[in-house]
Amino acid sequence: MEEIQQRQRCTLCPRACGADRDGGHGSCGTGTGTGFEVASVTVHHGEEPVISGTDGLCNIFFSGCNLQCIYCQNYQISRNTDRIPGSTLSLPELIGRITVILDRGIENIGFVSPSHMVPQVRAITRELHRLGYFPIVVYNTNAYEKVETLRSLEGLVDVYLPDFKYMDKSLAAHWSGVADYPSVACSAIKEMYRQKGNRLFFTDSGKLRSGMIVRHLVLPGAVASSIGVFRFLAEELSNRLAVSLMAQYQPTRHVMGLPPLHRKITAAEYEQVATEVERLGFENGWFQEYDSAEQYNPDFTLPSPFGG
Ligand code: SF4
């Protein structure tokens, strides 16, 4: 299939690891020479209200990830060293799972951790269009993306949902294994902004039809980095951008011996970041409740990872 390219010497994402994805797995843990490595296709209610709405969206959780954040809360499907629940599906099998959900009236689909699966994102979206399905396409990314790869998605992605993780190179190196994360993510988010700007467009039902929301998860002991993220957005892009400040960090068993990641964020840490977001003049977006960590514990070994 023409779309499933990048099989040899893959340079799709900024890792540019050069893996032969036909014969083996890249740094992202995935091969995909012959299919679609998917951990879960499920209705999800846990995104921002304008994305989940009341009926949820159809999320496609890809297996593996091009970042390896040691604290990842989706570690069951993102740690490339582990056996990941899910399966390798053909395009018709995957389309079948998606359309069963869309046929219930769900308006949008979300590609989660798609950076290493961009050719697959294009193939899925075009096949849905060929079959007469035109869902809102949400691109839910860690923002470790190449600009040229994002350009290939212009016109296909309706909503960019980047999680802008750090502005601190040292944290990025220690916690995600990529010291260049801040510079790469800044360029990627600028490209998303070039495509979408800061205006949000909605359907009659109130779902986000087109636009961009920048997420940020506050991490323990990393207030300065968090503040740096929002200063970059305000100074280099616009404080009219929609932002989503998240407090849901919860330590997994993988970081129990790694302070400060072994603890939740404190109320004071969250307050410092939230105060700076307000001081910078951001007025569009969402602040999670401080004490929301318990609500976001997926189990990808279950048919419905988020319950329900
Ligand atoms: S997408 Fe995967 S195989 Fe391709 S460059 Fe990135 S980590 Fe390597």
Describe this structure in words.
The protein has 308 residues and is α/β, with parallel strands linked by helices. The chain has a single domain (36-286), classed as Alpha-Beta Barrel (TIM Barrel), CATH 3.20.20. Helix content is 29%, strand content 17%. Strands 1, 2, 3, 4, 5, 6, 7, 8, 9 and 10 form a ten-stranded mixed sheet that branches. Strand 9, helix 9 (267-279) and strand 10 (285-287) form a beta-alpha-beta unit. Helix 8 packs parallel to helix 9 (267-279). Bound molecules: iron/sulfur cluster. Iron/sulfur cluster (SF4) binds at residues 10-13, 15-17, 19, 21, 26-28, 66, 116. The site of iron/sulfur cluster has 14 residues, from loops.
